[in-house]
TrEMBL record:
PROSITE patterns: SOLCAR (PS50920). Solcar repeats lie at residues 61-145, 158-242. The keyword Oxidoreductase does not apply. It is a multi-pass membrane protein. This is Mitochondrial phosphate carrier protein. GO terms for biological process: response to osmotic stress. The lineage of its organism: Eukaryota, Viridiplantae, Streptophyta, Embryophyta, Tracheophyta. It comes from Solanum stoloniferum. It is found in: Mitochondrion inner membrane. Transport of phosphate groups from the cytosol to the mitochondrial matrix. Mediates salt stress tolerance through an ATP-dependent pathway and via modulation of the gibberellin metabolism. GO terms for molecular function: mRNA binding. Keywords: Membrane, Mitochondrion, Mitochondrion inner membrane, Repeat, Transit peptide, Transmembrane, Transmembrane helix, Transport.
Length: 353
């Protein structure tokens, strides 16, 4: 595909033009960036400021861009690490059989072949596409909303509380979208022979446990995802701010897009490590409850123990979530700069208009 054709792939409502020659300028800009795009890098080159295209902050186009970027960042990354997620879930459910990462891969390859390593990719792709759209889109909305409620001075003074409140509010909505897909995914991944994937797994799941069964794990999912997301967004914002303050010699607005996106990835990776530790006990609960019909939280605690809930599968999850979160912030901010928006963090919360 020619780079001049990329314009047709981006919805027109994401842009507002400032010149009648903006289409021509946009194509020229993309041609200028072709050399950068040829590199083996997931970061997307951003159009220059003089391209004539720029999304205005906190407009419907801004929230639409945030939603699309969030959907892309989550669905692509979670689907890519499906084999790791599959091993993790099986280590949590059957530790006697899946004793380590390496042996787990060997068992799955022997029993299910290469295709077995991507079992459950469809509910993962669709579920995290919906979750990412809600997570990032509503986070940007709630961050602005709570900043406006607090006022300019308090928004800066209590910015971490605003990050925490905004991310928690967004995740409550995002998990409602994710939960049915997560339930089917866990069942498909941990019970060989249950179903091939989403198309036959979803109706079989509903037939066995009813439609309400798809939301049996919503409370532990909230318990896993809300602390995870609060840590993911608040720590990311704080880490990036500190990187620009202490590690980057140049102010953010003077840094190149490549530098800013590198900071986004590094901040996301560090934030992901913290996320994995905080949310891991609930992650074990979600896997246990979705795998065992009629199981309760008490059953999980009795069988796994408090130490088991906190540590079983944790090293793999730290590696997986660190990489995942770093890549998500990299992709999300890459999409933002591609449509003419600044990268996330490194600046105070939005002021009241």
């Amino acid at each position: 595909m020619a780079f001049s054709d990329i314009e047709s792939l981006i919805p027109s409502y994401l842009y507002s033009t400032t010149s009648v020659n903006s289409s021509k300028n946009f194509s020229t800009t993309l041609d200028n960036h072709q050399g950068n795009m040829d590199q083996k890098n997931f970061l997307i080159a951003a159009p220059k400021e003089d391209s004539g295209y720029k999304v205005e902050m906190y407009t419907p186009a801004f929230y639409a861009a945030s939603t699309i970027g969030g959907s892309l960042s989550c669905c692509l990354t979670h689907t890519a690490v499906t084999p790791l997620d599959l091993i993790k879930c099986n280590m949590q459910i059957d530790p006697a059989k899946f004793k380590s990462i390496s042996s787990g891969f060997g068992i799955l390859l022997k029993e299910q072949g290469i295709r077995g390593l991507f079992r459950g990719w469809a509910p993962t792709f669709l579920g995290y596409s919906a979750q990412g759209a809600c997570k990032y889109g509503f986070y940007e909305y709630f961050k602005k909303y709570y900043s406006d409620l607090a006022g300019t001075e308090n928004a800066v003074k209590y910015k971490t509380l605003i990050y925490l409140a905004g991310s928690a509010s967004a995740e409550v909505i995002a998990d409602v979208a994710l939960c049915p897909f997560e339930a089917v995914k866990v069942r498909v991944q941990t019970q060989p022979g249950f179903a091939r994937g989403l198309s036959d797994g979803l109706p079989k799941f509903v037939k066995a446990e009813g439609a309400a069964g798809l939301y049996k794990g919503i409370v532990p999912l909230w318990g896993r995802q809300i602390p995870y997301t609060m840590m993911k967004f608040a720590s990311f914002e704080t880490i990036v701010e500190q990187l620009y303050k202490h590690a980057i010699p140049t102010p953010k607005d003077q840094c190149s897009n490549t530098t800013q996106l590198g900071v986004s990835f590094a901040g996301g990776y560090l934030a992901g490590i913290l996320c994995a530790v905080v949310s891991h006990p609930a992650d074990n609960l979600v896997s246990f409850l979705n795998n065992a019909k009629g199981a309760t939280v008490g059953d999980a605690v009795n069988k796994l123990g408090v130490w088991g809930l906190c540590t079983r599968g944790l090293p793999l999850r730290i590696f997986m979530i660190g990489t995942l979160t770093g890549a998500q912030w990299g992709i999300y901010d890459s999409f933002k700069v591609f449509v003419g928006l600044p990268t996330t963090a490194g600046a105070p919360p939005p002021a009241q208009k």
